[in-house]
Design brief:
Number of domains: 3
Number of helices: 16
Distance between the termini: 67 Å
Structural class: alpha+beta
Shape: elongated
Number of strands: 17
Length: 479
């Protein structure tokens, strides 16, 4: 195939809102969900004569991201005016950083077939967000609530080579942002969005091809599909003797294809120059050190700990640590005193994640407190409750909000471990199924599952499976 003769060269520019209560240069609320143009003031509306004042906490959050990404913090950085005209940009320019950003270099490590690979970063810089255009059937409106919300832009080197790698990079980056508390990374709210630069070249070539930029992708799936489409589009052009034109494209999720938006801008198109209303940002060593020592455990560190200290697999560690809330919930289950971390891991990856995904709610709303889920799992460990009964109880707990003990009692799910009761049920089944018993004793050992099923049915599914199996096997053997 033609695609196999080419290599994709992919770089990503990620814009993510910082988790501040107020905007980057004014005191307006930065939260999502307010009515149109409720969170605005003369500063973020770009009125004449107003002056921006930098949000210190936004700088601290940007530094957390920098340390997590192994980036080099610059004690001296400069805000710049990035000039362009668009209806959602009231000042006619955006306050950003360019030649002297807050952070340079760094990397994000991703798994690649089991082998970690470092995706290098160019820089991490701060900027303000623009507003939001809302296009109606007969009009276009602008909501300036988002105008001035603090962002960091994380720019990668063109080190990615496939749509899958790009997806892995974005998932790891979002996890890091959430772990350090820099951003919630809610893609559906525009918290975390991505511009993709894609080019192709012949395999073995070191020369970069002409790139296409795909703007404002807000889901991992769209990023992966857009890259796959764009690579195929560029291969088809080159194979037919055509030439790639440097353009900015948009992703059409309905047709699942990219389409041209405009010719690609270059840096000089934006006429960058230092923002005259803001002094250079000088960070003292004390502030940098305070942020550095306050850094929490990162996803990669947690995965490593889960494997080395808890004996979990690389896959289990990856699933459990993708979302910080889920990882915290898993660790809370361990505090209940479960003997086997695998039990808590399996339950979190199956029942907890299922309930979370099916509910469409937050973790705290979707599932019971970890203390109650842990109490349920302790009942399974202590053979008071069967695994299937625990799943039934957990589903009810998610709906009712009741505790483990109350739910198990109300539903009558307590497991029977009394050997005398189980022995009586075994004898009853053996007496009723004499022909099957004869067949079993004649060598049809596959019938054993039949007998187990009949005993469990006779006990309403409450018999302790281990004791049922042991007693039934002895009785069928004539002991």
């Amino acid at each position: 195939m033609a695609n196999e003769a080419y290599e994709a060269v992919i770089g990503l520019e990620v814009h993510t809102h910082l988790l501040t209560r107020s905007k980057l240069f004014c005191g307006c609320a930065a939260g999502f969900g307010a009515g149109p143009n409720e969170n605005v003031c003369p500063v973020c509306m770009g009125m004449p004569g107003v002056l921006p004042v930098l949000n210190r906490y936004a700088v601290e959050l940007a530094l957390r991201m920098a340390f997590a990404a192994h980036s080099e913090v610059q004690p001296y950085s400069v805000f710049a005016r990035k000039s362009y005209f668009y209806p959602d940009l009231p000042k006619g320019y955006q306050i950003s950083q360019y030649e002297l950003p807050l952070c340079k270099g760094g990397y994000i490590e991703i798994g690649n077939g089991g082998q970690p690979r470092r995706i290098r970063l160019v820089r991490i810089h701060m900027e303000e967000d623009a507003g939001k255009n809302i296009h109606e059937a007969d009009s276009s409106l602008v909501d300036f609530n988002r105008s001035g919300v603090p962002l960091v832009e994380i720019v990668s080197e063109p080190d990615l080579r496939s749509a899958d790698e790009a997806g892995a990079y974005l998932r790891e980056l979002r996890a890091i942002l959430r772990y350090v508390g820099a951003s919630e990374g809610r893609m559906e709210e525009g918290d975390f969005r991505c511009d993709v630069n894609v080019s192709i070249r012949r395999k073995g070539s070191a020369e970069l091809g002409t790139k296409t930029e795909i703007k404002n992708l807000n889901s991992f799936r769209f990023v992966e599909k857009a890259i796959a489409y764009e690579v195929s589009r560029q291969v088809a052009i080159l194979e037919s003797g055509g030439r790639i034109v440097q353009e900015t494209h948009l992703w059409d999720p309905v047709r699942e294809q990219t389409r041209p938006m405009r010719s690609k801008e270059f840096a000089n198109d934006y006429r960058y120059f230092p923002e005259p209303d803001l002094p250079p940002l000088r960070l003292d060593a004390e502030m940098i050190e305070q942020v550095k020592v306050s850094m929490p455990e990162l996803p990669a560190q947690r995965r490593e700990r889960y494997q080395h200290e808890l004996g979990l697999s690389a896959y289990e560690g990856a699933v459990l640590t993708e979302d910080k809330e889920v990882a915290d919930y898993f660790e809370s289950l361990l505090l209940v005193g479960l003997n086997n971390p695998k039990t808590a891991a399996n339950w979190t990856m199956s029942e907890v994640l299922r309930a979370l995904n099916e509910s469409g709610k937050t973790l705290g709303q979707a599932v019971p407190p970890a203390s109650e889920t842990g109490a349920l799992l302790k009942m399974v460990e202590e053979t008071t409750l069967s695994l299937n009964a625990a799943k039934t109880a957990f589903a009810m707990m998610c709906k009712s909000g009741r505790g483990a003990s109350a739910t198990v009692d109300e539903m009558g799910l307590v497991q029977v471990s009394d050997e005398a009761v189980i022995a009586a049920a075994c004898d009853q089944v053996i007496t009723a199924e004499r022909e099957k018993v004869a067949e079993y004793r004649a060598g049809r050992e596959k019938l054993f599952g039949f007998f187990v099923g009949r005993v469990m049915k006779a006990m309403g599914g409450k018999g302790n499976p281990k004791i049922v199996n042991d007693l039934l096997r002895r009785r069928l053997a004539g002991n």
